[in-house]
Amino acid sequence: MEIYLLRHGTTAWNKELKLQGSTDIELDEEGIRLAKETGEALEGVHFDACYSSPLKRAVDTAKYVLDGRSLPIVEDYRLSEVNFGDWEGRDCSKTSTEIPPHATDRFFDLTKEPISTPNGENVQQVLDRTNSFFKEIVNDPENENKRILLSMHGASGRALMHAVWQDNNFWHGSVPPNCSITIIQIKNKQVVSVKKDCVFYGEEVHDYYGAKK
User: Closest by alpha carbon to 36, among 17, 15, 61, 11?
Assistant: First the structure.
């Protein structure tokens, strides 16, 4: 089995450094372009199945990547982004005054008791639902020789990868770039290879959370 874990394309809120979470923000023009370029680069890659978060930015990214193919996109709520509750739409830059100091760092700290956002989720809830999905597809014998595309988000994608990495380092270096793909190869229900945050479009990539890729 091979899993291509895709992060959605860019949105206006990505660039404005706002927490999106479960808010259903659409792709912007650049996000559409990156998804299309990714799809063109993967034109020769065969996918047997595609699952997506039900949020528009993830579903539409999958549609652009799979353009011209007859493959259905199956939506699954377990792939959705973290629900940040009352924090959604707030500035999440490092100098933000709209979120309690160090709250986002603490939120994703897997070495401490999880904290929940007001009227939202905590990271353990996201780990539980993404892990449930991951185990389900890995343990299905019909998927053994399939290549599967998952269209997800920055945090929920890293949460799903926790089932692979099994450590307390949630981000593993950074938020994955928009339209990047992490490739997981699985044999006999065991992960044998991971290629992290591969980019399939031909320009310098910037992470809108501050780091240049």
Answer: 61
In Å, the largest CA–CA distance within the chain is 49
d(CA 75, CA 103): 30
Read off the pLDDT of residues 127-171 as tens digits, 9 standing for 90 and up.
999 999 999 999 999 999 999 999 999 999 999 999 999 999 999
Nearest one of 127, 137, 122 to 163, comparing CA atoms: 127
Distance of CA 175 to the CA centre of its chain: 9
The alpha-carbon radius of gyration of the chain (Å, integer) is 16
